[in-house]
User: Which sequence fits this backbone?
């Protein structure tokens, strides 16, 4: 029987973030115009930040969002995993 998922577990969340960064690295490796990819990502990140800031979850949500966005941006700029 499969273990139930505890989405609030910090280790589980770290695994999710790692998977997203790995995906960004692969995307950056195969995308023909990395500068446009990074630019489009940064624009989307700003829209996401505005939506996040409007939530009542507080400052930690915004800080976590910004931390992961920065990690993904670095992964897009250096897709070999030098982040």
Assistant:
């Amino acid at each position: 029987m499969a273990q139930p998922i505890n989405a609030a577990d910090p280790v589980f969340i770290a695994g999710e973030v790692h998977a997203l960064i790995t995906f960004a690295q692969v995307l950056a490796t195969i995308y023909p115009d990395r500068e446009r990819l990074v630019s489009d990502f940064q624009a989307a990140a700003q829209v996401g930040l505005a939506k996040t800031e409007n939530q009542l979850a507080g400052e930690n949500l915004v800080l976590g969002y910004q931390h992961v966005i920065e990690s993904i941006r670095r992964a897009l700029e250096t897709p070999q995993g030098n982040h």
Observations:
- The chain has a mean pLDDT of 85.
- The helical segments are 10-30, 34-53, 59-77.
- Residues 33-83 form one domain.
- The chain is about 70% helix and 0% strand.
